[in-house]
Amino acid sequence: MAAVMSDHAHGAHHGPTGLMRWITTTNHKDIGTMYLVFSFIMFLSGGVLALTIRAELFQPGLQIVRPEFFNQLTTMHGLVMVFGAVMPAFVGFANWQIPLMIGASDMAFARMNNWSFWLLPPAAILLIGSFFVPGGATAAGWTLYAPLSVQMGMGMDMAIFALHIMGLSSIMGAINIVVTVLNMRAPGMTMMKMPLFCWTWLITAYLLIAVMPVLAGAVTMVLADRHFGTSFFDAAGGGDPVMYQHIFWFFGHPEVYIMILPAFGIISQIIPTFSRKPLFGYASMVYATASIAILSFSVWAHHMFTTGMPAAGQLFFMYATMLIAVPTGVKVFNWVATMWRGSLTFEPPMLFAVGFIFVFTMGGFTGLICAIAPIDIQVQDTYYVVAHFHYVLVAGSLFALFAGAYYWLPKWTGHMPDERIGKLHFWCSMIFFNVTFFPMHFLGLAGMPRRIPDYALQFADFNMMASIGAFGFGLSQLIFLYAVVKCVRGGEKASARVWEGAEGLEWTVPSPAPHHTFEEAPVVR
Amino acid sequence: MTTQGRVAAENRRLLVRLAIAAVVMFGFGFLLVPFYEKICEVTGINNLIKPDTVANTQVDLARSITIQFDANTHDLPWQFRPLQTQISVHPGELATVAYEVSNTRSEPVTGQAVPSYGPQLAGQYFRKLECFCFARQTLAAGETRTMPVAFVVDPGLPADVRVITLSYTFFEVAARRVAGEGAGGNS
């Protein structure tokens, strides 16, 4: 805190320069930028793992990697993307945007903010470095199910420590966000006047504080089983591997919403701007977000329908899961109603937002299908599930991140991103995404199991198609990199408001946003 | 400056509360373990180590099932072996076999055995009327004990199952209190 207050005395940026500026910075904008850069690097690393998987699956038979290494690839792809790319990216957006949106000068705990970021690179090094130790990286699947995770080599220990560190970073980030949103709002900014992105992040932060420690507990138990002679999950020592799944998914299902609620927030900012209408049903959006978060604690066992649950349990978790479709539906209808009879324009942020609604809703529907216990028992652990969660995670979270990046890049850099390149990026991503993941529905329904490096001959055509799509999708992301670099280096000057229909405090500061903003709190009418 | 000081104090108070919440949730993760075991016990989901009852004693003489016996120990310096490696039974027929266990340590040790079946599916048709796995076993230093297992294979066993492997693993009951009641493996 002291650092921030003394910083207040200075106008422009002042202090160490070069690398030390970034290591010691407590400025929310610097830290937000570092989060975004870090998550993009992790996104590309996770993408390389994914493309290696798809290269192996291009044809039946084993061509490129050994089966053990394939298992490491699928596991690490999941861990890197979830904990390295998607979650830090949303925290990056929160760091940049929340203080600007609520009229605060910085995050509540600027020094802790620096810590939460700088914990991430060591965790990433631990995680990715585990590929190079004897036995290789963990290959137990991103869920790290016992008993496999109890038996792996030292790569598993490195993954556990990486998760501990990343979890600590997330919890610190979440606490910072809750305190900032609750205590640092400008005078007149009541809770129900707050931009929806702040609302969704506030609720997400509460979810993080509630479930990240549970994950830390679960992996600590795995660690104890591995090295300290306990038998939490080892049946031959009186433990129970199914219990790991219960504890993991008690974290894991809220985690799913941790990765999508901030995306909902970004979309709820963008759709009104390019519809030139206020968001339809603001209050219902807030309540829908809160009910999704609360319901997320009572649905975890829908990931475990095949573990031999009693029928009553299956029915409870099936109906509870389907109930989540109601608040999610409220959100989708509100976005569509916001667009209804609006004066729409389709700049890159809006394209990604509309694309998000379309493709995310498809993923939502396949989610409903997976929620039905008798169907889930058929499609469990098949490519149908892979298709489902990539529709909600890639087309959901990732497209929302792209939408948000194009939307706020002018505010961050002071330059408009090249619209033609942005549109090219959108259409390439959209088309190749569907070429990659749509065939996986058919593969899953036909019975192709996930996490297996080889497959039966009848799956060859759709797999070839998915692999071609995956390489197209991966290369399309270099367009995004080019668009961002171009935007940072120059381009059409952005005005303070940037977008004609943009509303909110962040559009009252000049573009690019100065190093220090809202040192005198603005008054919201 | 006074308002800033007040906000800072309020921020710190909220920080402490949220940090406590995070620590409590870390503990909650561990609390899920006994909670889960209790639920399994109350609902009878994990009843691997409770005696079964046999309702239908019709013996199906037309079929013979080979039962193989296996014994393992988990971090326990005991010698543990079945006195017969395999027998042949008719479904519905009561059979009794014996296992021998000896404590090689120079102090009394308490152990608990958990059964598992191959194929997994056979577990639900394998009815144990008497088994040393229903209770923890305490062996004095150097003691050797012969323990019986009495079982009936349910005639409802699918026709394609001709061989069942019954495997026991003994583990030491020390740090964890589980053994007697709730938690065996899942079936």
Automatic annotation (TrEMBL), chain A:
<dbReference type="InterPro" id="IPR023615">
    <property type="entry name" value="Cyt_c_Oxase_su1_BS"/>
</dbReference>
<keyword id="KW-0249">Electron transport</keyword>
<feature type="domain" description="Cytochrome oxidase subunit I profile">
    <location>
        <begin position="22"/>
        <end position="525"/>
    </location>
</feature>
<keyword id="KW-0472">Membrane</keyword>
<dbReference type="InterPro" id="IPR014241">
    <property type="entry name" value="Cyt_c_oxidase_su1_bac"/>
</dbReference>
<comment type="function">
    <text>Cytochrome c oxidase is the component of the respiratory chain that catalyzes the reduction of oxygen to water. Subunits 1-3 form the functional core of the enzyme complex. CO I is the catalytic subunit of the enzyme. Electrons originating in cytochrome c are transferred via the copper A center of subunit 2 and heme A of subunit 1 to the bimetallic center formed by heme A3 and copper B.</text>
</comment>
<keyword id="KW-0479">Metal-binding</keyword>
<dbReference type="Pfam" id="PF00115">
    <property type="entry name" value="COX1"/>
</dbReference>
<keyword id="KW-0408">Iron</keyword>
<keyword id="KW-0560">Oxidoreductase</keyword>
<dbReference type="GO" id="GO:0016491">
    <property type="term" value="F:oxidoreductase activity"/>
</dbReference>
<dbReference type="InterPro" id="IPR023616">
    <property type="entry name" value="Cyt_c_oxase-like_su1_dom"/>
</dbReference>
<feature type="transmembrane region" description="Helical">
    <location>
        <begin position="117"/>
        <end position="140"/>
    </location>
</feature>
<feature type="transmembrane region" description="Helical">
    <location>
        <begin position="421"/>
        <end position="442"/>
    </location>
</feature>
<feature type="transmembrane region" description="Helical">
    <location>
        <begin position="279"/>
        <end position="301"/>
    </location>
</feature>
<feature type="transmembrane region" description="Helical">
    <location>
        <begin position="160"/>
        <end position="184"/>
    </location>
</feature>
<keyword id="KW-0813">Transport</keyword>
<feature type="transmembrane region" description="Helical">
    <location>
        <begin position="316"/>
        <end position="337"/>
    </location>
</feature>
<feature type="transmembrane region" description="Helical">
    <location>
        <begin position="35"/>
        <end position="55"/>
    </location>
</feature>
<feature type="transmembrane region" description="Helical">
    <location>
        <begin position="243"/>
        <end position="267"/>
    </location>
</feature>
<dbReference type="InterPro" id="IPR033944">
    <property type="entry name" value="Cyt_c_oxase_su1_dom"/>
</dbReference>
<feature type="transmembrane region" description="Helical">
    <location>
        <begin position="462"/>
        <end position="485"/>
    </location>
</feature>
From TrEMBL, chain B:
<keyword id="KW-0472">Membrane</keyword>
<keyword id="KW-0186">Copper</keyword>
<dbReference type="InterPro" id="IPR023471">
    <property type="entry name" value="CtaG/Cox11_dom_sf"/>
</dbReference>
<keyword id="KW-0735">Signal-anchor</keyword>
<comment type="similarity">
    <text>Belongs to the COX11/CtaG family.</text>
</comment>
<keyword id="KW-1133">Transmembrane helix</keyword>
<feature type="transmembrane region" description="Helical">
    <location>
        <begin position="14"/>
        <end position="36"/>
    </location>
</feature>
<protein>
    <recommendedName>
        <fullName>Cytochrome c oxidase assembly protein CtaG</fullName>
    </recommendedName>
</protein>
<dbReference type="InterPro" id="IPR007533">
    <property type="entry name" value="Cyt_c_oxidase_assmbl_CtaG"/>
</dbReference>
<keyword id="KW-0812">Transmembrane</keyword>
<comment type="function">
    <text>Exerts its effect at some terminal stage of cytochrome c oxidase synthesis, probably by being involved in the insertion of the copper B into subunit I.</text>
</comment>
<dbReference type="Pfam" id="PF04442">
    <property type="entry name" value="CtaG_Cox11"/>
</dbReference>
